[in-house]
Amino acid sequence: MKKKHKKVTGTWIENPLFQFYVLAGVLIILLPVFYLNHAIDTVLMPRLFLLDLLLLVFGIFLLLKGQIKATDLSLLRNAVLVASFSYFLITAISLIFALNPHEGFFDVVKTFSVFVLIFMLTTYFTTTPDWAGILAKLMLFAGSVAVLIGFYEYLTLVVGSTEQFLPDGREMIYAVRGLMAHKNQFSDYMMMLLPFLMYGAIRFEKLLKAGFIALIVMILFLIILLQTRSVWVGIIISSVVCVAVLLIFYRQFLLPKKSRNIIAVVSLAIILTFSGIIAFGGRQKYNSSLSRLRSIASPQAGNNSYRLKVWGATIEMIRYNPVVGVGAGNWQLEVSKYLPDLNFVQKEMNWGRPHNDYLWVLSEKGIFGIMLYLLIFIISFIYSFRIILGENDLKLKIITLLTMGGLISYMVVSFFTFTYERIDHQVYLAIFIAAIASIHQQQKPAKPLKFNRYAFSLPVLLILLLGSVFSFATVLQEIHLKNARTFLDAGKWKESVQEGLKARNSFRNIDPEGMPVDWVIAQAYANAGDHQKAIVYFESALQAHPYNFVVLNNVGKSYFLTGDLQNAKKSFETALTYLPNFTESLVNLASVEYTLGEKPLAYQLLTKIPESDRTPAINQNIEALDKEIKKEIKKAARKAAREATRKQKAKTNNEKKQSKNKKRPSQKRPGNQH
């Protein structure tokens, strides 16, 4: 009996359909709800770890069961996969030119994971009947969970709140995060569910169709409530393009000419009506949805001014590093050099990304990186049109059109945010690309590829193993860092140092918020009064992030308190080169100049601080310095007057003496008289 049970279990596990359900189920249902509260970024690294672990386990299983022998490696000839792998290589090579290569490991691991995921999904899509229908059903479940959580948070945290703003000054709507770390990322995620949900509404009948339609309506309503403008624009543009393609190639979609004309007239009427409403509606209410939609094109609206400043700094970075870029993951380090001329204030300096994926890729990986990145999308669109124009099943053309719309909306949103970084977004991008690639592969199979499967699978598994180790170690690092910060805030310096030391590893030396790992250790030592040790770790932190104005200011304070005024002065001055209006460094540098006896310089530094940023203590110091300087000026004036009087008296006495000598009769010596 045991032998028979084992045989059934083995067959069941080895069933490709079962494997597909497991793979798709983890990606679509489990991954979006997987998070760790103890990490600094509760979703980023935990989900990368889960993704890499999933791919690694699947790869090992297929290898051990011998199913790797049946894998169609001709897919590696597919242009999308070639471009994707080439982009991974460029990402890895870019680390050679990076100021801090450690910060690029995440990008390298993520990029390789996406390549493997595209390959694996394409393989299963080509061998699984009705894979699109299965994905649609899984997304129906995942979308329902997302909507329930989203509406619950909106009703309890926004509608039910008595506060208008969060403690950090943002509007209460930002309290809604859904399954992601931010409301905007949550909106992006729901937007990417729409193509397969729409396919489900077309593909299925009766109750299931009603469920798909109801979920689509609720998602659109929730996206409107969340006020994510880039998602609105992405949905609008992708909808217009998809309808245009449908109308142009209506014969390929078996659409009667009469129906095409009706759709064209209705679409045109909707576009004109909607354009009029956008142009003229809701102008009396600043925060209306229409006002927010219009504001995306206004340089002064919301965060647009900050975004444009960051884009300007990124373009400057690209201008100085056009070919090879600054290296994967190094944008947030290098951008500090290009910000001083843009008049940022301290609260605007928390942009860890340029909020434009295309500028991000170009700045870090240069011209070849952006060319390969865009090539992935271009090839996908070429494949899409080949499928639509080819002799394919109508269902395949429909899912291709909808998936192409998903790619377009993704690309639009990527212009304003950082979908490139987030794991869930990359998973859905891989699903879109694999969907198109698999249909194209069935339409035009690539030539067989004679390649040792173990020579392919073993290096892939090794890199996935390294990626899993990296992501797991980074998750542990974030847990220790979060503990260290908690102890730091609680005044437990020894415990903070211990947790900070545990957070150090060889994979990454900067946390998700852009602070070097060693900073928290140094700050704990500084707070405990051990400034010599603090300086050691502050300097180590600066090796990881040389342009971090906070760390430069902190090490300057420790140098000052140890009596090393010259290094203190140098540190504060360097901090001010990256943030010229940094209040704390201006105050600290003023203290150094005062100690060195340069009171006028100290006064000038303090008066550079805007009046709105001056504390009572700063105002008192300015007044005290002003009095001291005036007193010293008066003292110097009196001294100068006394000196002038003394000199004048001396001059007068000298003149009198000379005059007296001139008036005195000459005394002739008696001589012979003739």
Would you kindly provide a written description of the structure presented here, covering whatever features stand out?
By secondary structure, the chain is an all-alpha fold. Among the domains are: 2-33 and 79-283 and 299-445, no CATH class; 581-646, no CATH class. The chain is built from 25 helices and no strands. It has helices at residues 2-14, 16-30, 44-64, 79-93, 105-127, 131-159, 183-203, 206-226, 229-248, 257-280, 289-295, 304-320, 331-334, 357-389, 394-414, 423-443, 453-489, 493-503, 517-527, 531-544, 549-561, 565-578, 583-595, 599-607, 616-663.
Q: Helix and strand succession?
A: HHHHHHHHHHHHHHHHHHHHHHHHH
Q: Bin the strand percentage.
A: under 5%
Largest sheet: none
Total number of helical segments? Answer: 25
Describe the global form.
elongated
Mean pLDDT across every amino acid position: 88
What is the gyration radius calculated from CA atoms? 34 Å
Say how many strands there are: 0
Query: Strand pairing plus helix content: what structural class?
Result: mainly alpha
Distance between the termini: 166 Å
Question: Which consecutive residue ranges, at least 5 long each, have pLDDT under 50?
Answer: 1-9
Helix content: over 70%
